[in-house]
Design goal:
Layout: E1 2-6, H1 11-23, E2 27-33, E3 38-43, H2 49-63, E4 68-70, H3 82-100, H4 105-130, H5 136-149, H6 153-182, E5 192-196, E6 199-203, E7 213-216, E8 226-230, E9 233-236, H7 238-241, E10 247-249, E11 254-255, E12 260-261, E13 266-270, H8 278-289, H9 295-326, H10 331-344, H11 347-366, E14 369-371, H12 374-380, E15 383-389, H13 390-394, E16 395-406, H14 412-423, H15 429-438, E17 447-451, E18 455-460, E19 463-469, E20 475-479, E21 482-493, H16 497-506, E22 510-514, H17 519-529, E23 533-535, H18 540-553, E24 557-562, H19 568-573, E25 576-580, H20 586-591, E26 594-596, H21 603-637, H22 643-666, H23 668-680
Parallel strand pairs: 15-22, 15-24, 22-23, 24-25, 25-26
Antiparallel strand pairs: 1-3, 1-4, 2-3, 5-6, 5-7, 7-13, 8-11, 8-13, 9-10, 9-12, 14-26, 16-21, 17-18, 18-19, 19-20, 20-21
Amino acid sequence: MTIYLLGLDCPNCAEKIRFYAEQRTEVITADVNLFAQKLQLEIAPSASEKDIFKNIKAYVKSVEPGVETSLTPEETEEFSPRPMILRIGISALLYGIALMLPRFELLILIIAWLTIGYDIIFKAFKNIIRGAAFDENFLMTIATIGAFFVGEYPEAVFVMTFYQVGELFQNFAVARSRKSVKALSELLPDIVNVVRNDTIYSIKPEAVEIGDIMLIKPGEKIAVDGSVIGGASSIDTKALTGESEPREISGGDEVLSGYINLTGTLKVRATKVLTESSAAVIQKLVESAASKKAKTEAFITRFSKIYTPVVVIFAVLLAVIPMIYAGQYEREFLYRALSFLVVSCPCALVISVPLAYFASIGKLSKRGVLVKGGAVLETLSNVSDAVFDKTGTLTTGEFSVTDIQSLSEFTADEILKFAAYAESGSNHPIAKAIVKTYGKEIPADLNITEKAGSGVTMLYENAEIFVGKSSNAKISVKRNEETIGEISVSDTLRATSAETIEKLHKMGIKTHMLTGDNEENAAKTAEILKVDDYRSGLLPAEKVKSLEEIKAEAQGAVIFTGDGINDAPVLALADCGFAMGGLGQAAAVEAADAVIADDNPEKTVAAILTGKTTRRRVIENISFALGVKFAVLVLSALGLTGIDLAVFADVGVSVICVLNSLRTQITQRSEHRRQKSEFENHEIA
């Protein structure tokens, strides 16, 4: 069951909603996706969705009155900073006027305080009535009321104003990250033209059926995955694959939803409906990623629940115990306690840590790498071994003739001709490679018989020509049972495979190759790519066993990258499985932890580097926030600082941590350069 929370921007409130929902007996699990603004529930079969929605809607209204609860994904308004900027401006103006009019200072500052903080104050008192006081609204309200009480009127307004400035930055950061998710919905056109019974109809993308012929003009987006049956064009694949160079396509080529047609008009036969097409798969993956938390995120959530009440209790003791000891009211100790309260808010961690993960997820999605949540990024920060499938992953899966050896009076050209003639009726990739290498016209009336599993026989010029696999993994050509020649055929390496392995080695990561191919081809590929270890002739079950053995010896996380067709069991077993080119393949997408939208294995390197960068940002945020807060808490307790520094330790630290988390999105180019130099200069310990 999905409940949409339109307008939800507060991470603390999001956690409250999730906790409330999960405490209900009819709810099994609950996850709030702050960035997609929805609550996803797993409910008992006997539960009433109507009752669940009614209760959660009432609770949400009490926690966040501005949030609209809905069962449908209605369009939300774009975040606008103008209302809050206006309130901050009015508050600052009143603050200045109050300082110039001492006689009316208290009255003007109370008006300024209410102007800038009425929503915070309202939520705080509402939560107190409900018995859920320990949140940032409570802390700010009590701290500012206390400041008025001890005569620090300007500081009361300053604290509330600066806190709202921090909230403004936080909301901006959430809105920026949310844009990366919303942009995915713009991959699809509003209308698609289809040809039915020689008539062109303009319909919605969701109405396209398998087999429909789509007419796609230059500048239009492709609505669903399909196969080109007419026309030729350049297409922009950047939205899905992250590749900036246009791709040339023509009849027979496959295209994915979200691609943009650039030049010629295309006729494309739909091979999938909208919900199963690539753009929809990407959107679901990225949206669901935000709700799959890393261990660090989960820890911060638990930490904040304990941390805030403990600090509030300590602040009370800090004010009360010295007064009891002195036997009288002491303004100084109450002021210290108020400063202590301001510092204690855990906002810097609650928003910046998940934001760091989500910013990285958004960055990778733009580069055509879709990871299923912060937990995957956390795993990628500690990779020790990278395992690759060979055929279709490190190689293209397209075969080519590499050598022709004559073992008789026939020339190499004649041997190739015999083989091409015999294989001309086969659809096997090796047969196609031989015919392509021959490259000449082949007679149509050849007498060819295929022997399943062994080869093909052809009667040609009063002789029997047999073409099949020999014991040494070459293609044997026989004439009247006499071997006249052998043809070597090998799979073509991908352009980026060697560079991928080299970069992984420079990062100190051990590389492995698993393949069902024969020993000779596997050894040759391994030698060219310089992989550390390879295993050949493996059946699917044997690949699983091999990966288990690699994991048992690994010093860190083990990733596996496969082409997404028959590698689902191995993808699921790996600490992090990459389905390469796996968009639209349900089994691969389900089993994998990450999906590479195109056929570039080098993107595993980008994912690992992003995982390391994200982990570093998270540690920076936690260390900085806790370090500053602890220092200011001690100074506040000793009376060595006031509320002004306490505000920096709360709001200032929050803003710095949020900006640090957003660096992944803001400085993508410089980050890419830094990552490039990271593996070039990496020292292996």
